[in-house]
Specification:
Length: 507
């Protein structure tokens, strides 16, 4: 039901030299592989409370929906002397203009179905197409090197293929598996094409990048302000990102991995994870834990979490320290040093799987996660939620069941999540398309998936969510000086229900 992180087995498989190697250039193209997908998605968000009494006159009605139709064609040549090449074409369209601008879809998770580029506030619902992949690859022994534009998967960068077109990057990647039970990975990303974008831009150009960083560097999102208004106004590109990792399974039933991500002059992150599998007859038990540490390498001077504001265009910044500080976030200093740890237990018995998970983020600051590599994925994260904000504790229980013995191809999940937040810390970045400040969150999820047995490659997914967000009425020190005006979203009821329907046909 969800995109998971790259498994050890998948890494090893990717590094294996293909057995269908071509003997000449003609056969390399002739014996290549073409994968296609026809895709349709419908998203609907129903906010519990609408109207000027809750959202203000500027946003009288927030309910929204969107319907998109598209797909992809991905072709890869057969390897010739270990060298192969691949391209990936993707498209999303608005059939017969069904999704209209006034549908408010741009104010909900349906916003990623179409363009998020320049003019998206007025051009929303227009389809687009993009060559999201174009790369060359070299395989030798148990190792692989890739360069160009492609799908990159690691704990910090993920395609997050839950909308019409996935996130891809420009750069290079290496997988080395010459040592038994061990895989080394090195990823280098110079540009990113986020979901809803038809072009590649520097690594700060994503909706999940903190606003201060998007304004500091040259991005599509750069505000039309001046340095005097607290902006650098995007005078330079953001640095490239270097990621390295190792996975090891030398000890039976135990998988260990360690990673480091360096975004020069911004932030450095480290991750350690261990998962241990046990089997007691038909009962399986997996125990796992993950720890991440974030080191401030300059992001704090740009974001200024104590004196700056996600919501204020006149907040103090590194380039305008004299501007009066507004809407304090309540952090102890202007640094983003922090850490998070999480634990999980997964019990499986025949067709059933049950997850219990917990996560806790340090009060020092939010973890930065600009490229859909969600820190708590596989643990406490649920649909739409970011729970790696400062001083947040998260709890999740989820039951998955495969009904194939009754209805071939049919599976479902039921989950409940609780996020205990600190409302004095307004997030540096969007709350996964819900950027309004809210308190504790309770969410119930019910998903079903049906892989049609009599039509090879056809599947249907239905995802539902009921979410209750506690209102934040008053936050001491989180208002402009001498004012009782709260940051956007304070005092609003952001509780909502969401429905997602998706059809995929793979060929």
């Amino acid at each position: 039901m969800k995109i998971t992180r790259l498994s050890f087995a998948a890494v090893v498989a990717c590094m294996a030299t293909a057995s269908f190697a071509a003997t000449d250039l003609a056969s390399a193209f002739k014996d290549g592989k073409l994968d296609g997908r026809v895709r349709a998605q419908y998203f609907y968000t129903d906010w519990d409370k609408n109207g000027a009494g809750n959202w203000g006159a500027a946003k009288p009605d927030m309910d929204g929906q969107g319907l998109a139709l598209g797909g992809s064609l991905v072709y890869k040549t057969a390897p010739l002397y270990g060298i192969s090449a691949g391209v990936g074409f993707y498209t999303t369209q608005n059939p017969n203009g069904i999704t209209e601008l006034n549908s408010n879809a741009r104010n909900t998770t349906a916003s990623d179905l179409f363009s998020r580029g320049p003019g998206s506030a007025t051009d929303f619902s227009k389809g687009y197409s993009v060559l999201a992949q174009s790369y060359i690859q070299y395989d030798i022994s148990k190792s692989t090197v890739k360069a160009g534009r492609f799908i990159m998967t690691n704990p910090f960068i993920n395609p997050n293929d839950t909308k019409m077109i996935p996130l891809t990057v420009q750069g290079a990647s290496a997988l080395v598996g010459e040592i038994d039970n061990t895989a080394f990975m090195l990823d280098y990303a110079t540009a990113v094409k986020e979901r809803g974008m038809d072009n590649f831009q520097n690594m700060a150009t994503t909706g999940d990048t903190p606003d201060a960083l998007k304004n500091y560097y040259q991005t599509t999102y750069t505000a039309s302000g001046s340095v005097a208004a607290g902006y650098k106004a995007g005078s330079e590109n953001a640095p490239s990102v270097l990621i390295g990792g190792v996975k090891n399974k030398s000890i039976k039933n135990l998988e260990l991995q360690g990673w480091v991500m360096n975004w020069p002059d911004i932030v450095r992150q480290y991750m350690l994870e261990a998962n241990y599998d046990m089997q007691f007859g038909k009962l399986g038990l997996k125990l796992g834990g993950r720890y991440m540490h974030q080191s401030d390498e300059g992001a704090g001077d740009i974001i200024r979490p104590k004196s700056g504001s996600f919501y204020s265009t006149t907040a103090a910044t590194k380039f305008n320290s004299t501007t009066a500080a507004t809407k304090f976030k309540g952090d102890s200093d202007d640094k983003v040093d922090t850490h998070i740890y999480m634990l999980r237990a997964i019990a499986s018995y025949e067709a059933a799987k049950f997850l219990l998970a917990y996560a806790s983020t340090d009060k020092g600051g939010d973890l930065l996660a600009p490229w859909r590599g969600f820190p708590t994925e596989g643990y406490t994260r649920s649909m739409t939620q970011t729970d790696w904000m400062a001083n947040t504790k998260s709890y999740k229980a989820q039951l998955d069941y495969d009904f194939s013995s009754f209805i071939k191809g049919f599976s479902a999940l039921l989950g409940y999540s609780y996020y205990d937040r600190d409302p004095s810390r307004v997030p540096y970045q969007s709350m996964t398309d819900r950027y309004y400040g809210n308190g504790d969150t309770r969410q119930v999820n019910f998903d079903i998936q049906y892989k049609v047995p009599y039509v090879k490659g056809l599947e249907w997914k239905v995802r539902t969510m009921v979410q209750h967000n506690e209102k934040v009425g008053s936050i001491t020190g989180n208002t402009a000086a001498g004012s009782t005006t709260y940051a956007s979203g304070i005092g609003n009821d952001t509780s909502n229900k969401e429905l997602r329907i998706e059809m995929n046909y793979f060929f």
